[in-house]
Automatic annotation (TrEMBL):
Domain RNA polymerase sigma-70 region positions: 39-107, 118-187, 202-251
Domain of life: Bacteria
Pfam families (UniProt xref): Sigma70_r2 (PF04542), Sigma70_r3 (PF04539), Sigma70_r4 (PF04545)
Name this protein carries in UniProt: RNA polymerase sigma-B factor
Biological process according to GO: DNA-templated transcription initiation
Keyword line: DNA-binding, Sigma factor, Transcription, Transcription regulation
SUPFAM superfamilies associated with the record: Sigma2 domain of RNA polymerase sigma factors, Sigma3 and sigma4 domains of RNA polymerase sigma factors
A GO term for molecular function: DNA binding
Amino acid sequence: MTVIAPTATSADRAGELIAAMAALPVGHPSRRRLRDRVIEAWLPLARHLSSRYANRGEPRDDLYQVAVLGLIKAVDRFDAERGVDFAGFAIPTIVGELKRHFRDKTWSVRVPRRLQELRLAITGANNTLTHTLGRSPKVADIAGYLGISEDDVIEGLEGARAYNSTSLSTPTVEGGTELGDTLGGEDAGYELAELRIALGPAMAGLDEREQKIISLRFYGNLTQQQIAEQVGVSQMHVSRLLTRALIKLRQELGGADV
């Protein structure tokens, strides 16, 4: 991904500022002033990255402030001697800060505010009751403490599961596959199994000779000429009977490819 840092000055000037700041030792009188100028020059990068996370339930201004925080961290931690340009270091730092914000401050799945508030109440009750009871409280304990029904407590506990989710990029084992790799794909075998189940009643709708021809052709793998010799008709007649039987089967199976 290539991101051009739009700045109040030019991209080159922004690069010069960060290089000049990085060259100064910590505590140098000019470093603080240069630091402020560097942050200001790279603010458009923070705004650009924060805009990528818009429309996810968080105010744009809040996301921008989080991105700015990430930018400041990048400026303070940047080490030019590592051979990485500032943009290459700042981008993952800012994006990481934005992702951390969504992980720690928001719900992974949007749930009604009532459930969010209920979760907070249950968490508080659980902490209090654990201390007073000397054990983990049961659903009935929490319900009695909050003056709500046990069903409400269970609903709140279920809703709490939406607060955090596990990324599909999470490794299942160190250095191994990711969680998303373990998800099953579409298995054509299920559709084939359904067709086989439906084929029985469909075959029952054919007359005895049609059933025999279908069986010899598709289960016995015989040619039309071989079938003709067994049935005692011409190969052309077998072809017509086979075509008619397949049409009936398609109709019975709802147009499936037989």
